[in-house]
């Protein structure tokens, strides 16, 4: 079935909490878009598609973008691109918190884009 919407290959990670191995699995969210408001500007929202590039910014499919809800095309800039094992390879894990870092977003002048996404797991 060539057109089956299968989950991404890299959407699970493994860590150790000192008392044993832990698994972090974003597969249930891999088909969703998570929206968050910018706290400084109510017209700006973040659109995040875990484990894939499923939101558009111009003609580019990206993982995370900053969107202006008052403009026609919407995308102000992209701030993260999913690159399978590069992005999903080795997140930092400490005390129930998973930290993913991305530095492949659109630059702002001479500044490089740095995005950190934290998942706080409730055991």
Describe this structure in words.
The longest helix is centred in the C-terminal third of the chain and has 4 residues, at 85-88. The protein has one helix and eleven strands, in the order ββββββββαβββ. The chain is elongated, with a radius of gyration of 16 Å. A hairpin with a 2-residue loop joins β5 (55-57) and β6. It is mostly beta strands and 123 residues long. The chain has a four-stranded antiparallel beta sheet, with no helix packed on it.
- Radius of gyration based on Cα positions: 16 Å
User: Ranges with pLDDT <50 over ≥5 residues?
Assistant: none
Into which percentage range does the β-strand content fall?
Answer: 35-45%
Q: What is the subunit arrangement here?
A: single chain
CA-based shape: elongated
Number of strands: 11
Specify the structural class.
Answer: mainly beta
Q: Helix tally?
A: 1
The whole-number mean of residue pLDDT values reads 83
Q: Would you list the SSEs in sequence order as H and E?
A: EEEEEEEEHEEE
Strand order of the largest sheet: 3-4-7-8
Which percent range fits the helix content? under 10%
State the distance separating the first and last CA atoms: 37 Å
Search tags:
single chain; three-stranded antiparallel β-sheet; 11 strands; 41% strand; four-stranded antiparallel β-sheet; mainly beta; 3% helix; elongated; 1 helix; 123 residues
Please write out the topology.
Layout: E1 12-16, E2 21-25, E3 34-37, E4 44-48, E5 55-57, E6 60-62, E7 64-68, E8 75-80, H1 85-88, E9 92-94, E10 97-102, E11 115-120
């Amino acid at each position: 079935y060539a057109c089956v919407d299968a989950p991404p290959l890299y959407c699970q990670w493994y860590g150790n909490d000192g008392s044993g191995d832990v698994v972090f699995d974003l597969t249930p969210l891999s088909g969703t878009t998570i929206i968050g408001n910018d706290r400084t500007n109510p017209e700006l929202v973040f659109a995040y598609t875990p484990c894939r590039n499923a939101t558009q910014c111009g003609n580019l499919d990206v993982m995370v973008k900053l969107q202006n809800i008052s403009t026609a095309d919407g995308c102000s800039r992209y701030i993260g691109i999913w690159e399978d094992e590069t992005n999903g390879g080795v997140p930092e894990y400490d005390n129930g918190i998973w930290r993913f870092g991305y530095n492949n977003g659109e630059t702002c002048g001479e500044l490089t884009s740095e995005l950190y996404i934290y998942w706080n797991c409730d055991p």
